[in-house]
Design a protein that fits this description.
Oligomer: single chain
Radius of gyration: 14 Å
Number of domains: 1
Order of helices and strands: EEEEEEEEEH
Strand content: over 45%
Shape: globular
Largest sheet: 6 strands, antiparallel, barrel
Helix content: under 10%
Number of helices: 1
Strand order of the largest sheet: 1-2-3-6-7-8
Length: 141
C-alpha cells in the first residue's frame, strides 16, 4: 500500500489531476480511470497559464478507481497501475491509499492487466509521448 497526496475540490471531494506530457526523449503521464477502466468526467479543465506537460484536468476520484502512471525514456516504458482502496485525511492534507495491481517494465507485465484497462494504458503511453502536451487525453466529455 502507498499513500498519494491528492487534491480536494471546493466542496471537499477527493480529486486528482490528469497530468503529464513528453519532451524530446522522455515523458510521463498520470491518467485516471473508473472501476470499469472508462474515462471520468473532469470537474475542471485548465485552458490558461503554463500548460505544457503540466496538470490538465481535475478529476474526482473514489474507491475502486484506477491511476495509471506511465514514464518513458526513448519510449522504453515503465507503467504502474494503482487501484484506490481508501482515503486518509491528516490535518490539511488528503491522501489516497493505493495498491499497485499491475506493473510494466523491461518490455513485460508482472501480470497481464484486464482488457478493460487497455485503453487507459495506451492513452497514458500516448500522453507521455505527446510533445509539450497541453490538454487532457482521457476524460469523459
Amino acid at each position: 500500500m502507498k499513500k498519494v497526496l491528492i487534491e480536494k475540490t471546493k466542496k471537499g471531494f477527493p480529486a486528482l489531476w490528469e497530468a503529464g506530457g513528453g519532451y524530446t526523449n522522455t515523458g510521463e503521464a498520470t491518467i485516471i480511470a473508473n472501476k470499469d477502466g472508462q474515462p471520468k468526467k473532469a470537474i475542471y479543465v485548465r485552458r490558461r497559464g503554463h500548460l505544457a506537460s503540466g496538470a490538465h484536468a481535475l478529476i474526482p476520484i473514489e474507491v475502486g478507481d484506477y491511476i495509471v502512471k506511465a514514464d518513458h525514456h526513448r519510449e522504453d516504458f515503465e507503467i504502474e497501475i494503482y487501484k484506490i482502496v481508501d482515503f486518509e485525511i491528516k490535518e490539511e492534507d488528503t491522501y489516497a491509499i493505493v495498491e499497485l495491481v499491475h506493473e510494466f517494465s523491461r518490455e513485460e507485465w508482472d501480470k497481464e492487466p484486464p482488457a478493460y484497462l487497455e485503453q487507459a494504458v495506451h492513452t497514458a503511453m500516448h500522453k507521455a509521448t505527446c510533445y509539450h502536451c497541453r490538454e487532457p487525453h482521457f476524460i469523459d466529455e
